[in-house]
Amino acid sequence: MTTNSEQKQMTPSSPSKPESRKDLTRNESWSVRRLATADWSSAVFALIVVLAVVGFFHPNFLAPGQLINVLQNSVYAALIAAGLVFLIPQNEIDLSVGGNYILTGVLAALMMRAGMNPMLAAAIALCAAMSVGLLNAFTSQLIGIPSLIGTLAMGWMLRGLALALANGTQVTGLPMFDPLFNILGGGKVASVPVSVILLVVVGIVLTIVMRNTPFGYRVRQIGSNADAAEFSGIPIKATRTAGFVLAAFMAGLAGIVALTFFTIGDPQSGGGIELFAVAGAVIGGTPLAGGRATVFGAIVGAVLLTAVAVGLVYFQIPATWAQFATGAVILGAVSVDGLVQRQRRISSEGE
Amino acid sequence: MASLEARGIRKAYGGVVALKGVDFEVQPGSVHALLGENGAGKSTLVKIMTGAVRADSGTLKLDGTEASFVNTANAVKHGVAVVAQELSLFPHLDILDNMFPMREPRMGPLINRQTMRELATPILEELGIDRPITTMVSELSLAERQLVEIAKALVASPRVLLLDEPTSALETGAADRLLKILRILRDRNVAVVFVSHILEEVMSLCDQVTVLRDGSVVLAGADVSKLSIHEIVDAMLGKTLEADCQRREPETPATDLNLPSSVVAPVAHDSGLNVSNVSSAAGLHAVSLKVKRGEVIGLSGLDGSGANALLRAVAGLAPINAGQITLPGGRPRPRNFRQAIASGVAFVSGDRRKLGLMLDKPIWENIVQVTAMGLAREGWFLRAEHLKKAAGALANMLGVRAASVNAPAGSLSGGNQQKVVVAKWLNARPSVILLDDPTRGVDVGARAEINGLLRKVAEEGAVVIYSSTDLEELANSCDRVYVFFRGEVCAELTGASLTPSALLEVMNTGAPILN
């Protein structure tokens, strides 16, 4: 086939110059350059820099126990961010993931306290989380409310609902010795927390979904050019709906993992976790402009932000300044990434 | 002295050299054609001369003094205006607001719409834009937008005007008006650079011609009156291309294309595409036509006469009020576009930037998009290497010129982009191929290749329906042409009666030809 086409290109009836054509069936191999230009490369680079800088001044920070602690702390935001990368590239967003995260934990806690089997309670709470995703899809895709506003309002409703259901207090008295709490919350395999292992497994599964399924391709193509996507037969509303449900499921999953670790359902916790997750996804290489996405990058981004927050403690920055410092680091990281991307665009322009 | 002079212009994008030291000059009061195949470097040269892109080396001289433009606005200030190949209007602003981007006449800090109106109205009238100037650009047709784009360049009363394929989207009438205006400009001593693929226009309008091939000048400022179309085509292609009219002969270039015999979905014995008495809100009145498998059918007509509406109805993009549409294999009319694709309909749009391609995505992802993503026919687990191989084979077959299938589609020249769009639809193995002005902004060589390919696909049993504003092309590459007039089919031309002049007459008058 290949040789035939080459011959065909040499025939006089073909008006174009054969020597300027290349065989397009050949594959390009992996290279350092490709790794360095991957969407997530800046986030990984930034994470290494943060670890190196903090570790240089405070070597304790690099102790295995501390690093695992950072990872464990970042699991919740990382799970949420890994779900959001299925929405952001489609030019949609879900800001109700924070409220969903809290409500799912409180809901499961309330059912457990009422005596329900913890596994069953968790499953039901996850279903509730996904139905919130469906509701978000309904308001944005069928009613036509921009998801930025629709999910912002939904997030407030969910937080309010959690607060009301829990009567404004923490839900305690949970069956802490149930396997769900023992394994997912407190269990370790070779000193790695089970929740971190869960994050790795979920990350691998979602990466395959993103890179190797029609759904994953559709998610990225819709943000690239929605008109052309529709013209290729891609069902846009259905794909976006699936994105909302997946993001909501991941928020609920994060809520359940948090519940098993903290063993209380706290309606007042998790303030701003949705923005933390969005920032993690964007830093990780999933631009709000759409069209590109990386699950691995989103997880790295969330870990990076957690590492910054934990690292700041080492520098004895007063607690009153911690938020300011976190914001400054996010701004710096995104700016550097923006400059790098721009440089890359300029150098590849018109190629 | 030349109005605008370029000397030794070099430009490379990454490793690809677009211009290898090009000299070019245009005299005041003359129309200078700049020709070349897609990828020859015309657009790059135009961009450099108008400040959109910076040359790596070389100089620009304006009326003999060296000039360098920071950006296009700066070039306009110096009297160099451009009508770009890709439209650059703001759809959410009205016609008038689009006429003075960044140089609105002011009254103190405020924009003076009164002055704007006085300046713009005569030019809009001269170009024959009969819409109110408060019409939103988003409501205009492609052809009308192109006219507004031209008006926008003229309103700056430039000394040098560059037109990058200005007539590719224009109906014949509008194109004639533009040509008339160019003659007026020539009389006013404006230097005009005219980039076009339509050689008849070049012959009738231009004084000099410069031809680029692979980034070098192969014909510099030659006198058009001493050249034939044949000589120009030879210069563009660097070899003798048999005249276009050969395309309908059995020995067309198409037949030696290495098309795998399985490109088209096998459909059982049937009667092809059947449209009977279709009327629609989009303006169709009792339209009936039949297309057998293996035929290449043309649709022609003025803007809004129904050719485009019929394509949209067949593709399930627009509803119909009455009548029946039956796809090959007896399949019923698709209710929506997705269903249409699933039943074997392909739709190649001339608006490849908006509807055809994802410019930031690699070529291979664009080619496999309909099959692997849109219809999910390749299963739930996609292997990129496998898809790349399939896409690469199709791209090779269509002669897409690219460094690799991993290159973004936006890095290709116009003709190669359109080949990728065609490849994407052939990959879905369609039984009906609808084409809406597919060769807009595509050069002669690529046109011949695309048309040859369509013929081949038809021979394998597909129904090919081709709507175009290029009458020459319709006459040359179609078996029959249906001419639309005010929503009805007013004539069906075939055989000896199928000529560009006959098409032109029927589409403008609506009267069937008596012969």
Report on the structure:
The complex is a heterodimer of chains A (351) and B (515). By secondary structure, chain A is mostly helical. Helix content of chain A is 70%, strand content 1%. Chain A has 15 helices and two strands. Chain A has a two-stranded antiparallel ribbon with strand order 1-2. Chain A starts with a helix and ends with a helix. Residues 1-20 of chain A have low confidence and may be disordered. Chain B is α/β, with parallel strands linked by helices and 515 residues long. In chain B, α16 (444-459) links the parallel β18 and β19. The longest helix of chain B has 16 residues, at 172-187. The radius of gyration of chain B is 23 Å and the shape is globular. The chains are: A mainly alpha (351), B alpha/beta (515).
Oligomer: heterodimer
* Main sheet attributes: strand count, strand direction, barrel closure of chain B: 6 strands, mixed
Fraction of residues in H or I helices of chain A = 55-70%
Mean pLDDT figure of chain B: 83
Number of strands of chain A: 2
The ordered string of helix (H) and strand (E) elements of chain A is HHHHHHHHEEHHHHHHH
Low-confidence stretches of chain A: 1-20
Largest sheet of chain A: 2 strands, antiparallel
**How far apart lie the N and C ends of chain A?**
27 Å
What structural class do the secondary elements of chain B suggest?
alpha/beta
How many extended strands of chain B?
21
Q: Termini of chain B, distance in Å?
A: 54 Å
DSSP summary: helix tally of chain B: 18
- What form of chain A results from the Cα inertia axes? globular
Walk across the major sheet of chain B and give the strand order: 6-9-10-3-11-12
The helix content of chain B is 25-40%
Poorly predicted regions of chain B? 240-268
What share of the residues of chain B does DSSP label as strand, in percent? 15-25%
**Beta-strand percentage range of chain A:** under 5%
Strand order of the largest sheet of chain A: 1-2
Please report the two chains with the greatest interface, counting residues with C-beta closer than 8 angstroms to the partner's C-beta. A-B, 48 and 73 residues
